[in-house]
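Per reviewer request, we include the raw input and output of the structure prediction for the construct analysed in the revised manuscript.
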Amino acid sequence: MSHTVPAVGAAAVTAAGCVWYLPALADLRAGDDRPRSTRLAALACLTWWLGTAAAGALLLTPVPGRWALATTAGGALAAGVLRLAGAVRRRAEQREEARRWAAVRPAGARPVPTVRPRAALLGWLVAGSAAASVATAVLLAAGRAHPVPAPAVAACAAAAAALGTVLAVTAARSRP
């Protein structure tokens, strides 16, 4: 069985991802000019896209397609861990900044909120859509081992991803 079509698709998706991984690469190259949380998020982005590129390259070889799926899943897992570490670090940096500004804030003045609830919602919705897509890929790669037919699984994942995208765009456009 030829893997040419999926490989070309993976290469196209990876090439189109340059709008994410090139700025991430610039953040990493900036070094200490960027906060540690930003560099961790950039590293997570690069890890994800490198996993996708490696999976595309594996699809061009005669190895089974499950190896490409495993590579993508490994990249997604590593990127998720790095992104979570970046989020934890970002919260610590925000608390530190709040303490610094509290020292110079006039008495009685209210602190400025550092995290917008809508931005957090947007992040969770996009992460949920990505998780649904990864779960679908794993179920489809497993073959007929599950009782749900593959088209039904794919349709549910597509619906979840579409709903997550619509909700994320709505949350991003509305005011905090």
